[in-house]
Amino acid sequence: MNISIRRSILGLAAFFIVTLNVIQAQEFNLINGESKLTVLGTSSLHDWHVTAEKQSGKISFKNIETGQIEKCSIEIVAESLKSGKSAMDKNTYKALNTSSYKNISFQLAEIKSTTSKGNGVYAISSTGDLTISGTKKRVSLDFTITISDSKVKLVGEKKIKMTDFKIEPPKALLGTITTGDDITIKFSIIFK
Questions:
Q1: In this predicted model, what pLDDT tens digit does every residue of 90-110 receive, in sequence order?
Q2: What percent of the chain has pLDDT over 90?
Q3: 82: domain CATH number?
Q4: What is the pTM of this model?
Q5: Range of 122's domain?
Q6: Which among 44, 77, 100, 104 is most buried, taking Cβ atoms within 10 Å?
Q7: Terminal-to-terminal C-alpha distance of the chain
């Protein structure tokens, strides 16, 4: 085999290896304006919710064709959680001790299973480290990802207790209004 043919074959092989790695190990960035994360809770007066206005994060895949996630991290600016009521927001920030702990974060730890639902949709069962108000806990998290064009959509919800993260449920009006310990975090996160 002559040298020019050998070089062509090696060049072609290198091209396919690089292309394959690019296809398999793609990283996407969270798009804040298209993503939504809401925390829902109860109180002795009425149900309540706060919505995150500032979040960031990344997701990358071992193999995007099979929905195999390699890494995923999401960070929320704690004082970007807004209810539309300034008094409630102040109580929320006090309970979260935002003067000391500026961010809430989730870091994927392990994928337990990935199940294809067809058309680029995958059901994911995972665990990850959720850090709220300086307390980090390993939690289980089931969610769905949809992969289409240049976007990845991650949708799910997680119920937690505030006291599991050493957060005293907020009180108002000298303790006459109390907040329930259970909250639900609902998210629809878009990565591009």
A1: 989 999 999 999 999 999 999
A2: 74
A3: 2.40.128.110
A4: 0.83
A5: 26-191
A6: 104
A7: 45
